Amino acid sequence: MDKTQKAALDALAVFGFQIKKQEPDFVQGRRPNKMGLFVGSGGETMKVWLESLGPTQTKAKVKTVYTRQTPFLWKDEAAVWIRRGMKDQKVDHPSKLKPRRLHGSFGWNIMEPFKPRPEDTVIDKRRPTMFIGNEFETIMSNLGLTTIVMIGCTTDGGVEATVREGFNRSYFMVIPRDCVGTYTEEGHNAALKRMERFAEIVESKELIDIWRR
């Protein structure tokens, strides 16, 4: 058993899907602008439709954690994030910042094709990394898990931030390259290259085959 196999069999995964169909115009690593929040801060990546792996379809015990990007309202936000927002939005006063995503809004809810199963866990995430401002690491500790498989958007945002921090906290990190995406193919590929230092970069089929053994 190689290290990727061992990691997959031991995994707590932000992953629980198999490829259902792939449209001819799907571009690996590109996140369609029309897509909202799905799983792991973006569950439908590279325009690949996914369906949940049922509990009888895999022999591996894979814990699935969904994250919903739930930023602080601007009135509760730290000054450094307000300043960043003003620069990104090119405004000269915090009152001119666009409202952030609210609980229960369209962009906050997990869309129907990716609804969590009863046994799955859903976490609201305040920052790009999964390790700040939520109970994710407590769940890892409670279950005695050491490996995290990441899917979602964006490759060069929350995925990369979590991978780097997870590695620094001594977790085994695994990234299925065809299950993460960002706004440009260039940004996607560059992030995957950077993450080679901190994670195993694999194809989703490889993990699924391992989990089904």
Low-confidence stretches: 1-56
Number of domains: 2
CATH fold descriptor of the largest domain: Rossmann fold
Strand order of the largest sheet: 5-4-1-6-8-10
The tally of helices reads: 6
- Tell me the CATH superfamily of the largest domain: Isochorismatase-like
Structural class: alpha/beta
N-to-C SSE string, H for helix and E for strand = HEEEEHEHEEHEEHEH
General description of the model:
The chain is α/β, with parallel strands linked by helices. The chain folds into two domains: 164 residues, Rossmann fold (3-Layer(aba) Sandwich), CATH 3.40.50; 35 residues, no CATH class. It has six helices and ten strands; from the N terminus they run H-E-E-E-E-H-E-H-E-E-H-E-E-H-E-H. It starts with a helix and ends with a helix. The N terminus is likely disordered.
Features:
213 residues; alpha/beta; Rossmann fold; six-stranded parallel beta sheet; two-stranded antiparallel sheet; 20% strand; disordered N terminus
Give a summary of the structure in a few sentences.
The chain is α/β, with parallel strands linked by helices. It has helices at residues 3-9, 79-89, 136-143, 155-168, 185-195, 204-211; strands spanning 11-14, 17-22, 48-52, 63-69, 121-125, 147-150, 152-153, 172-176, 180-181, 200-202.
Topology:
Layout: H1 3-9, E1 11-14, E2 17-22, E3 48-52, E4 63-69, H2 79-89, E5 121-125, H3 136-143, E6 147-150, E7 152-153, H4 155-168, E8 172-176, E9 180-181, H5 185-195, E10 200-202, H6 204-211
